[in-house]
Amino acid sequence: MTLKGGTSQACASCKYQRRKCSSECPLAPYFPPDQPKMFQNAHKLFGVRKILKILENLESHQQEEAMRSIIYQANIRDRFPVHGCWGIICKLHFQIRQVEEELHAVLAHLEMYRQQQQIAALTEDVTSQLELGMAPPQPCLAQQYSYSIIGSNIGYSSNYLDSNDNVGNSLWGQHPYATNYDTNSMPIIQSQLVASQPLASQQEEVQNYDEMHPFFDTIDDRQSYIETKEPYESSSEESLKDTAPSMEHAAENELKSAAACFTLTSIN
Amino acid sequence: MRNHEPRASSSCAACKFLKRRCTPNCIFAPYFRSDEPTKFAKVHKVFGASNVSKILIEVPEEQREDTVNSLAYEAEARLRDPVYGCIGAIALLQRKMVELQVDLAIARARLARYAANSPPILNDHGSMIPNFAEFPACGGLVDNHRLISVTPDRTESSINIPIRLGYPDSMASS
């Protein structure tokens, strides 16, 4: 339906409702006439009255962001009629866990290499001092140094390790409706549901974005799919754990060989 | 013998809220129990009973409970945050994922340098432990600093996200 005497087309909302689209139509800026599906999705999930009710309680500068989130949420619900955005949140949690595990494993491996290099550098110093006929090093000090390296904190202080519980658990922590989901489709999520923080902490996080503006620009609803690969198995992680004691043995062997050199030199 | 209709005390939360008789084939009854009145109240406030009913009719019966729970979650999120609703949580998680992926890429690059310059680390059996730098990133989620997510499978039994999460081209090249 077109405006009387005007050339602009009615918005998708007014077209759907078959009514006149005035210049003051509150939904016209968000539902262009050439995207009827977008309005249909929003109408199917929320309905016009509910959408207007949400908007009327917001400041004008918040209304645009609210509409974008409503449209996005409705589109997701159209694609996933059963799980909607909840399913995406669960999937993201799962993926984050996977990446975190991989990161931890890589950092542990990295730490072993660093320790190996430090021990090698230490034994080089000891050997060179012995060759130069310098005063014998204090074995106990060298031993303490190497043990301090081995015993040092291997963990990498990533921001996410600390914040993970705050963010992840805040979404599902004590949600009363989170207990009956299909365990076949989301077995991992059960292990992630640890009690604690209500959604209020999520509210605090959300209010900090000014970068929500570019967020919606980057979301591309056009489908461009890549097959997910199987997550990297943690068998290598187990073998990493096996190498930790072998590193200690290597350090001890290095010290012993250094001590042996010292003994031979002193005889001469 | 006359079969009496159940009294109002057995009405589901939805029918109690809507002040109507709860019939035996009420679509809401299995999912909005009378001991959870706020669940339906929130869903109704955000989406409306009519919309919820239409959504439930369109999904298979065995998936309706999940549908109701997801709607309840989204309704609660929208009530707490009228501007972003549950989309705020998605944005937060996506940002966290991006940051993690960057950390992982940096760590893998460092590991690759160490692996190239250092002797291999052996386990107790004398076998070389695998070099993480040689393996692809987790789930194929990283590709030239752009997050590309998941599969075309649209079946609800396995949740996949057909959303391409990425940055504008100007940032992707950085």
From TrEMBL, chain A:
<feature type="region of interest" description="Disordered">
    <location>
        <begin position="229"/>
        <end position="251"/>
    </location>
</feature>
<feature type="domain" description="LOB">
    <location>
        <begin position="9"/>
        <end position="110"/>
    </location>
</feature>
<protein>
    <recommendedName>
        <fullName>LOB domain-containing protein</fullName>
    </recommendedName>
</protein>
<comment type="similarity">
    <text>Belongs to the LOB domain-containing protein family.</text>
</comment>
<dbReference type="InterPro" id="IPR004883">
    <property type="entry name" value="LOB"/>
</dbReference>
<dbReference type="Pfam" id="PF03195">
    <property type="entry name" value="LOB"/>
</dbReference>
UniProtKB/TrEMBL annotation, chain B:
<dbReference type="Pfam" id="PF03195">
    <property type="entry name" value="LOB"/>
</dbReference>
<dbReference type="InterPro" id="IPR004883">
    <property type="entry name" value="LOB"/>
</dbReference>
<protein>
    <recommendedName>
        <fullName>LOB domain-containing protein</fullName>
    </recommendedName>
</protein>
<comment type="similarity">
    <text>Belongs to the LOB domain-containing protein family.</text>
</comment>
<feature type="domain" description="LOB">
    <location>
        <begin position="10"/>
        <end position="111"/>
    </location>
</feature>
